[in-house]
Automatic annotation (TrEMBL):
It holds the Pfam family HTH_DeoR. It comes from Pseudooceanicola algae. InterPro entries: Carb_Metab_HTH_regulators (IPR050313), DeoR-like_C (IPR014036), DeoR_HTH (IPR001034), NagB/RpiA_transferase-like (IPR037171), WH-like_DNA-bd_sf (IPR036388), WH_DNA-bd_sf (IPR036390). This is Glycerol-3-phosphate regulon repressor. The lineage of its organism: Bacteria, Pseudomonadati, Pseudomonadota, Alphaproteobacteria, Rhodobacterales. GO terms for molecular function: DNA-binding transcription factor activity.
Amino acid sequence: MNRHLMILEEARSNGRVSVETLAEVFNLSTHTIRRDIKTLCEQGKLRRLHGGAEFVEDASNLPYSVRNSLNIAAKKQIATQAAQLIPDRATLFFSIGTTPALVATALTIRTGLTVITNNLNVAMILSEAPDVRIVLAGGELRLPDRDILGEQALALFEGYRADYAIFGVGGIDVDGSLLDFHEAEVRARQAMHRNARNSILVADVTKFGRRAAAVGGSLQDADHIVTDLRPDGSFGPQMDLLKDRLIVTGEQI
């Protein structure tokens, strides 16, 4: 993966980056890291700070191909755990995003699923499952993410009742607010939640504290939250409220 993109993702997740820390992570000289940061600052993606830089919020997400390779081991563990909650012959809503697509991969062994989604990646993956029925939203395909948003996606989710909604988010604020990068993403996610009997949020630990502009829904609305590690102490009150609805793959025996 391009090092500049990895630095940007680190800055987006944590708000800022340190030259010394990045030099250690990439096993490079501080001079090289400073040069990377200088380039990203000149592009308007970072803002220089003493000893590092901070992320410049632009309400945009990283490319799908980049996100698909970030934290991949953690996301696969989350997907495997979430799939265990889903029985054969369930009716499922799937949101956009890379982690829901990995849940779809883990569900290809299930039989008789009905899958309702605006995520073309999910539809293609689960087309390999036995005796599957797939209902895909119409409209313009958003590239390169391969998903569909807008009124037709909303109408799709409002027209069905699912046993489970499987969804990801762009970020989770410290008060439990769920964040995404576009208002249309929030609207589609909330339509899924309204029309599902159970909801499963799949989010690796880097999503906790990650910034995004559009807000809608709360961590506390989900019936199950599957993550790889507990977030830092600032999320302690939210974690306490979740109780046994929180599934941490790193704590599973």
